[in-house]
Structure formats: structure tokens, C-alpha cells
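Q: I'm building a small set of examples for a reading group on sequence design. Run inverse folding on the following structure and report the sequence directly after it, with nothing in between.
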């Protein structure tokens, strides 16, 4: 009888440890996700961008409202449909050359984080787009031009809804100037297995 009691106690402890370890492993992702969401409020732009990129890579649906709020606050962020044209491409050691750019979407890094989350970001983006349309109809004053934010949200929704498009990530400065110095051609990176899209 004593031996049976020890076996039951040992089995209970073992099962408890397995459950504890499984909970810790599952909870780790949540803790990391919350850490990056908190980093989105950093006064340092580089920290905010790294956090946004990490959340995009994690495909964090919890981060969508926070990323949209940040997109709203950052007036330089944009998503644009880009027709075929010649661009200046930067090569190794600062060399430049002209190349042909096919049709596709061009977006800044923060917008690309939302794009990386994929279709699960669509409900949040569509809700933000609807709220922005209502603000425009009411004539509310905003720091960022409502038309710019509405356009960015609409283009981002279009990009996510069009999975076979060419996506290019550009810096905010280059997007504001209206020309493309491509930081990352997502489709080329996908072909080289460096980035995994939706």
C-alpha cells in the first residue's frame, strides 16, 4: 500500500512538472510579444521599428491595433502602388545603377510589419479605415492628413488582399521624395528563402 502511494505521488509530481514546463514554453511567446508591443512606445525610432519588424515576423494579431496607432502617429509612413518605371538601385560599396521596376506595392518598414501579419490583420485595418472615413466625414482635425492615413490604410488592405504582387520596402525619406531606393525586394528575398510571407 505504501509503495502504491509513492508511485501515485511520484506520478502526480511528474505530470505537474510536465504541465509546468509546457505552460512556460507556451507562455514565453506571449511574454516576448508583450515586450515588443511595449517597445512600440519607445521614444527611439530605431527601437520602435525593430519591435514592429519583430511583431510582423511573429505574425502577432495582438499587435495590430498598436501598429495601426503607430502608423497613425508616424506621418511619414506610406504604402503606394508603383507602376513600371526605371529606378536607381544601390549596389555594393555605394555603386548605383538604373534598373527596371515592375508593377507592385512599395511600402515603408512599419507598414511592411502590418503586411507581414497578413490576412489576420485585415479586420483591424478595415475597422481603422472605416473610423478614418467617419472622421473625414465629420471634419475632425488631425495632426496627420486624414487623406494620407486613409490612403495608406486602403493601399495596405489592397496589398494584403493581393498576395501575388511585388512588394518593395523603402525608407520613409525615400517614400516622401517619391522615388525608390529599395531596402528590400520582398519577392527576391522570398525566392532566396530569407523572408517567409503570409
Amino acid at each position: 500500500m505504501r509503495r502504491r502511494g509513492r508511485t501515485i505521488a511520484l506520478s502526480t509530481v511528474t505530470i505537474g512538472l510536465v504541465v509546468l514546463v509546457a505552460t512556460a514554453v507556451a507562455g514565453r511567446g506571449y511574454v516576448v510579444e508583450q515586450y515588443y508591443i511595449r517597445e512600440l512606445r519607445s521614444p527611439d525610432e530605431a527601437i520602435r521599428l525593430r519591435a514592429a519588424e519583430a511583431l510582423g515576423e511573429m505574425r502577432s494579431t495582438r499587435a495590430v491595433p498598436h501598429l495601426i496607432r503607430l502608423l497613425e502617429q508616424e506621418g511619414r509612413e506610406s504604402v503606394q502602388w508603383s507602376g513600371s518605371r526605371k529606378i536607381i538601385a544601390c549596389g555594393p560599396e555605394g555603386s548605383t545603377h538604373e534598373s527596371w521596376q515592375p508593377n507592385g506595392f512599395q511600402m515603408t518598414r512599419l507598414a511592411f510589419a502590418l503586411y507581414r501579419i497578413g490576412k489576420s490583420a485585415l479586420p483591424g485595418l478595415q475597422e481603422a479605415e472605416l473610423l478614418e472615413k467617419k472622421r473625414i466625414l465629420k471634419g475632425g482635425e488631425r495632426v496627420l492628413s486624414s487623406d494620407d492615413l486613409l490612403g495608406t490604410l486602403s493601399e495596405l488592405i489592397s496589398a494584403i488582399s493581393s498576395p501575388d504582387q511585388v512588394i518593395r520596402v523603402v525608407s520613409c525619406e525615400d517614400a516622401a521624395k517619391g522615388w525608390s531606393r529599395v531596402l528590400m525586394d520582398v519577392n527576391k528575398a522570398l525566392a532566396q528563402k530569407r523572408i517567409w510571407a503570409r
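The beta strands are 79-82, 85-90, 96-101, 104-108, 167-170, 182-185.
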